[in-house]
Amino acid sequence: xxxxxxxxxxxxxxxxxxxxxxxxxxxxxxxxxxxxxxxxxxxxxxxxxxxxxxxxxxxxxxxxxxxxxxxxxxxxxxxxxxxxxxxxxxxxxxxxxxxxxxxxxxxxxxxxxxxxxxxxxxxxxxxxxxxxxxxxxxxxxxxxxxxxxxxxxxxxxxxxxxxxxxxxxxxxxxxxxxxxxxxxxxxxxxxxxxxxxxxxxxxxxxxxxxxxxxxxxxxxxxxxxxxxxxxxxxxxxxxxx
Length: 241
Ligand SMILES: NC(=O)c1ccc[n+]([C@@H]2O[C@H](COP(=O)([O-])OP(=O)(O)OC[C@H]3O[C@@H](n4cnc5c(N)ncnc54)[C@H](OP(=O)(O)O)[C@@H]3O)[C@@H](O)[C@H]2O)c1
Description:
This protein is an alpha/beta fold. Helices cover 39% and strands 15% of the residues. Strands 3-2-1-4-5-6-7-8 form an eight-stranded mixed sheet, with helices on both faces. NADP nicotinamide-adenine-dinucleotide phosphate (NAP) binds at residues 11-12, 14-18, 37-38, 41, 65-68, 93-96, 122, 126, 147, 149, 193-194, 196-197, 199-202, 206.
């Protein structure tokens, strides 16, 4: 590790795409602050990542974070400041998909309002809390990547899974608003759809591996070339909102 080492923070890092984002950033030499709401699950994931990548305790750091907690986000900001870590990349990956066809709550006419509220609290307001709390830790040139979904695309909207779809549409709106708000600070904000990925959330039938799912997210966070701000990406290309 050198004073030039760049620092990224990843939410929902203990499994699925989040864990793979950590792996790819570590392989590119980044310091990674891996945030998980469950410390035990986080510790297991960190051990595996350290073994796979050779990262030491300075390069890969585990922190507790529930993205529904403003208190957690604020203490993370204080901790980053105390460590002297400037955050070059914030990756808002944590998310939930609470509706299920099997449970019958994938119908927008049936879905419980509490399910919609819980989904928004994690998927849309979680990234908002993180940006509000951590933007002060980000230098000029910093990058924020919001892990969204094609299910939130207004141009390709379906008629089911209302809570998840609306939460990702709101996340896309947050992306554009923050991209404009942070333009003068030269902090880019982009959204990314990882595609349909084999994780607990995506299921075993999904078409993509976690490595494929994480690729564009890591590219948006870590590309050496300057990238535009305020876009929605899949497979390293802009897609419609
Ligand atoms: N898989 C797909 O096909 C797909 C497609 C499009 C978009 N995405 C998006 O990609 C992101 C990652 O999904 P995934 O497929 O990797 O899902 P996953 O395997 O279910 O992992 C979700 C991660 O988010 C964490 N999380 C959920 N709520 C949280 C909270 N309140 N605070 C902190 N962490 C929380 C989970 O932690 P716990 O282990 O503690 O639950 C877990 O680490 C999500 O935003 C998802 O919407 C996925």
